[in-house]
Predict the structure.
Amino acid sequence: MKARLIHEVEGQRTFAVVLQSGGEAVTQLKAFADREGVQAASLTAIGAFSDAVLGYFDWQRKEYRRNPVRDQVEVASFIGDIAWADDAPSLHVHVVLGRQDGTALAGHLMEAHVRPTLEVILVESPAHLHKRRDQESGLALIDPQA
């Protein structure tokens, strides 16, 4: 992973983070946020994965169904946030992945291996967001009042 602070003003930092082939995207982005002390941020990215696992939240079971993707795919859309939960940065990302034939898959990004690159723009917010466990869903959701 390579990263560079590309802009900083009044508590808002913007980083370019480039993940390299073979790296696991979710783990590396969490490690980056932890290392840099990022507690609240938005992120977008483009690139490709050799494989991935997408999640679909099953409301009845209150858990994510894991949908493996075993193809080389383009990252057509990657949008998410980082918020503080349980004394650590929590990553929440949704992706749309494009297959060779032009069809697309979408969902919550649970894991993915980069190939050949994932170019991430991470914009830190000066007001830190916190997550709280939602009683109805069981999910840790952003609480703007926290």
Observations:
- The beta strands are 2-9, 12-20, 41-58, 63-69, 73-85, 88-98, 104-124, 130-133, 140-143.
- The radius of gyration is 15 Å.
